[in-house]
Inverse folding.
């Protein structure tokens, strides 16, 4: 190749816009990370973008999130997957259970808003906030608390539906320990010492043994109404898509709860046959299809139940 041909090739290569990149912003003195995937032929200024929030103690490169980003890009939908800091700087990967934990479910609200602001600064005007499992719940809490005009729709993928009764059963199933003694101790520590009182060696979220503050434990396991996503849905004044798999035990609670809410006109409930909580065995393809249809749809009519 001639030197002139090499220069021309270099110019061509460097002029190609980057379609996927890790991005970083500062939020409350911490650097937080995300992965931006811009679909071929799309731009943030002219086309919708989905902001994806991961599950409990997860991250933006966990399997369901990375697979969903790739599949959405193939379908012409851009996305930004974020990693919630959970109090750590530049957090990557699953949360290390050896690290002290002092975060709250609702902390996600301000971080999501920070990413919405970042997207707006890139020119985005049509943002869809989405999340999986706990991330779906946090997306719903965000939309209920914030009213950013750039956020047009919400997508809740197998969102959390936690109640005092089912969280106790889930805690005992997961850790083979009753929840009530640990919760009572956390509440006692809060009363006597304060929310920052440290509990060591306690089962918490995805960790068999954790160092966690009493305030964090009570937030995630105490009577927190924000953790029951169906009760939040009537406060979401925009089109909302809820997607659950028929093989997900969570669907047994979510479906009747959503269908039985008389004032929930903005929500479309979709069930994917044979899909589990993580939409494995190629069910992520079906999930991506449903999301694409919802994102690109112009309709804002009342909810459909399918």
């Amino acid at each position: 190749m001639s030197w002139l041909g090499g220069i021309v090739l270099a110019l061509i290569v460097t002029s190609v816009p980057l379609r996927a990149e890790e991005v970083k912003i500062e939020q409350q003195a911490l650097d937080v990370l995300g992965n931006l995937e811009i679909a071929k032929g799309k731009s943030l200024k002219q086309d919708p973008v989905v902001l994806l929030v991961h599950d409990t103690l997860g991250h933006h490169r966990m399997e369901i999130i990375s697979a969903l980003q790739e599949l959405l890009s193939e379908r012409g939908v851009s996305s930004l997957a974020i990693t919630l800091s959970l109090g750590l700087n530049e957090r990557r990967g699953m949360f290390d259970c050896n690290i002290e934990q002092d975060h709250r479910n609702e902390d996600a609200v301000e971080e999501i808003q920070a990413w919405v602001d970042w997207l707006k600064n890139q020119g985005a005007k049509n943002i869809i906030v989405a999340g999986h499992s706990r991330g779906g719940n946090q997306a719903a809490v965000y939309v209920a608390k914030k009213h950013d005009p750039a956020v047009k729709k919400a997508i809740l993928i197998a969102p959390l539906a936690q109640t005092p009764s089912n969280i106790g059963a889930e805690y005992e199933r997961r850790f083979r320990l009753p929840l009530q003694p640990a919760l009572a101790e956390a509440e006692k520590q809060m009363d006597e010492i304060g929310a920052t009182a440290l509990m060591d060696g306690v089962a918490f979220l995805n960790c068999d043994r954790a160092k966690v503050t009493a305030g964090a434990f009570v937030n995630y396991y105490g009577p927190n109404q924000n953790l029951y996503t169906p009760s939040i849905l009537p406060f979401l004044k925009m089109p909302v898509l809820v997607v659950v798999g028929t093989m997900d035990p969570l669907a047994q609670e979510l479906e009747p709860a959503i269908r039985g809410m008389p004032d929930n006109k903005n929500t479309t409930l979709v069930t994917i046959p044979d899909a589990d909580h993580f939409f494995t065995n190629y069910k992520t393809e079906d999930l991506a299809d449903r999301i694409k249809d919802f994102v690109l749809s112009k309709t804002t009519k009342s909810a459909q139940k399918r």
